[in-house]
Amino acid sequence: MSIVRRSPGLVVTEHEIRVPLDHAAPDGEQITVFAREVADPDGQDRPYLVFLQGGPGFEAPRPTRRPSAPAWLDRALADFRVLMLDQRGTGRSTPVGPATLVGRTPAEQAAHLVHFRADAIVADAEALRAHLGSPPWTVLGQSFGGFCTLAYLSQRPEGLRDALFTGGLPPIGRHPDEVYAATYARVLERNRRYWARYPEDHDRFLAAVDAAPVLASGDRLSLARLRQAGNLLGRSEGPELLHALLELDPQSPAFAHDAETIGFARNPIYAVLHESSYSDGHVTDWSAQRTMPPEYAEDRALLTGEHVYPWMFDELGALRPFAEVAELLAAHPWPRLYDAAVLAGNEVPAAAAVYVEDLYVESAFSLETAAQVRGLRPWVTSEYEHNALRADGGAVLDHLLDLVRGRR
């Protein structure tokens, strides 16, 4: 089904297709995948650029032209029609939440959720390409969307004209424990910088923990949960956002509201499947919990980052319905996502923005991967943080397109 709509400066076509939950069982349970096609009124016959959003568990952004949102949209529309895919389980695609899993045992829920990783998203994209009758297209993958793009290069390279990565070149074959050890090292360094920049926030942080305010959801704020505000520090504006939170009175409605946004109520699939996105053939077994450095037991004011822990599924009301299935998925032997032999023989033009101080995707591992993908051109920069595509999207996309087209 396709519906055409117009908004200022844009022609928007909404596409919905039905795909198998398990692409290996095409006659089994079916789900909906939604994509929003965005075109300049004078560019409706341009080739496609498919945007794969970060996450896992977040839908594509909703586009506007004046001002351009997302920030890279104007640059993209100069050359392409943009296809914004709501990855399975998100947005207008069949969602994942307590209501959609009701009536299933925890084992049945786990059997359902194992089909929401990058490999299934790649198969959905190829089903959509067939539906639209498109030749091979360009894919732009941000963060987890880059993980999906690497899986695309591994599994269905015939569907790709170009592959563009922004902060999203994952390690190939490395154990999640190695990933989280590296990210903790970066988070500890960001802690040092933050407390040096805003030393007064140290006492405010501890005061907020001791106050244990009740949040808007009814959850009580704990030390572990407030520590997760450190996830903000991987964004260019992150220190200022964290400071704006900590300068509020912890008993105020404003603090209760803003601290709630640290949680996972809107997109629980992120917490449930986050560690699996780093599993290229491993059991995760609560990797972030097991690899937490000893410093966290010694200093209450140390912040964490993009880490998921088993305590969250007890303490956060929005995640309690997923507690049993999260335990099952932590013990699941995830299959490999990336084919090193295929990547070594890659023929698809590819370029990747690798951010030297990326808090979420370890740059040393990204460069290791870049060396394993034939022809991939890395752009290594310390100018940007992980959110560069959102902060300066036109320039980032322009640079990547120059690389794959041989203009740099």
Label this structure with key terms.
19 helices; 15% strand; Rossmann fold; 408 residues; nine-stranded mixed beta sheet; alpha/beta
β-strand percent reads: 15-25%
Distance between the termini: 41 Å
CATH superfamily of the largest domain: Alpha/Beta hydrolase fold, catalytic domain
Shape: globular
CATH level-3 fold name of the largest domain: Rossmann fold
Please provide the ordered H/E string of secondary-structure elements. Answer: EEEEHEHHHEHEHHHHHHHHHHHEHEHH
Please state the structural category.
alpha/beta
GO molecular function, one term: aminopeptidase activity
Domain AB hydrolase-1: 48-193
GO biological process, one term: proteolysis
Keywords: Hydrolase
Question: What would you note in describing this structure?
Answer:
Residues 48-193 form the AB hydrolase-1 domain. This is Alpha/beta fold hydrolase. This protein is α/β, with parallel strands linked by helices and 408 residues long. It is built from 19 helices and 9 strands. The protein has 2 domains: 2-172 and 338-404, Rossmann fold, CATH 3.40.50.1820; 176-330, no CATH class. The chain has a 9-stranded mixed β-sheet with strand order 1-2-3-5-4-6-7-8-9, sandwiched between helices. Strand 8 (350-355), helix 17 and strand 9 (376-381) form a beta-alpha-beta unit. It is globular. The chain starts with a strand and ends with a helix. The model has no long low-confidence stretch (mean pLDDT 95).
